[in-house]
Amino acid sequence: MHPPTALKKRLNELGLRSRLRAHPRTQGRILAPAGLLRRLPSAPGLYFPFYHDVLPAYAGDLRRHLRTLSRHGPMIGWDEALAVLAGDKPLTGPMFCLSFDDAHLSWRDVAAPILLEMKVPAMFFLTSGMVGQQGNLTWQDCRQLSAAGFQFGSHTVTHHRLADQDDETAAREIRDSKREIEDELGIEVTDFAAPYGHPAVDFRERDVRVARDAGYRSFATTLRPAMHPGDSPMWIRRQGLHPAWPIMAVRTRVHD
């Protein structure tokens, strides 16, 4: 049975994006013209921009992104963002809640020093099975980042697409990653980000239910629109960015 047209289109987009990710400056230049039609947020809205690896060559670019966003609104932590969604904290303008995915060593060497210098909070969604692999963080690195004040959430055990897994395997990915991170870091893990993050293609409603039953309070997707008080924390909408992109390309993802 062939997937519906919209689903096939999304799969094709994912293939193109995977190829472009290997050349992020080129990707940014391709995206930038569309940014002419957008503007960075000015109206009240909660945004969840996220990154993956931040190579040393892109350290200055990440600083530029963070400085630009912070001129439009405060950079807040995950707890504070969930308080906004719950209506416990007012949303009077744009707000930005930053996160990072996978288990990149550059979190320790590049991203964290910049975030600490700029006093920007961040959530690190950790793929537990990647920890300790060559080029990735160790558990001791993660403990040091946690001690520095950064939050950790789960990004599954293997980073496989949940929608491709049977019920039992998908549930293990969601539950076991939480348990392992908690055991290694000595913290409670209550936030989850689905790998790839697009509903139907990458995860199912089944996975949101499993995450809620496992004790997660939030479930992050890669849908992009801004969020507002009353929106569900079990359907967080995040905007994927690369630090190599020019601000005009950022505007294609983070905008009113």
Quick overview:
By secondary structure, this protein is α/β, with parallel strands linked by helices. It is built from nine helices and eleven strands.
Structure commentary:
The protein starts with a helix and ends in a 6-residue tail after the last helix. The longest helix has 19 residues. The model has no long low-confidence stretch (mean pLDDT 94). 41% of the residues lie in helices and 14% in strands. It is built from 9 helices and 11 strands. It has one domain: Glycoside hydrolase/deacetylase (TIM Barrel), CATH 3.20.20. It has a 5-stranded parallel β-sheet. Strands 1-4-3 form a 3-stranded parallel β-sheet. The protein has 256 residues and is α/β, with parallel strands linked by helices.
Contiguous uncertain segments of 5+ residues: none
Number of strands: 11
Spatial separation of the terminal alpha carbons? 38 Å
User: How many distinct folded domains?
Assistant: 1
CATH superfamily: Glycoside hydrolase/deacetylase
Name of the level-1 CATH class: Alpha Beta
Shape by Cα distribution: globular
> How would you write the strand order of the largest sheet?
7-6-5-2-11
Written as H for each helix and E for each strand, in order along the chain, the element string is HHEEHEHEEHEHEHEHEEEH
Q: Treating each run of at least 4 consecutive H or I residues as one helix, how many helices? A: 9
- CATH architect. name: Alpha-Beta Barrel
Mean pLDDT: 94
**Structural class of the secondary structure composition?**
alpha/beta
Instruction: Using the CA coordinates, give the radius of gyration.
Output: 17 Å
The amount of helix comes to: 40-55%
Strand content: 5-15%
CATH topology: TIM Barrel
Main sheet properties: 5 strands, parallel
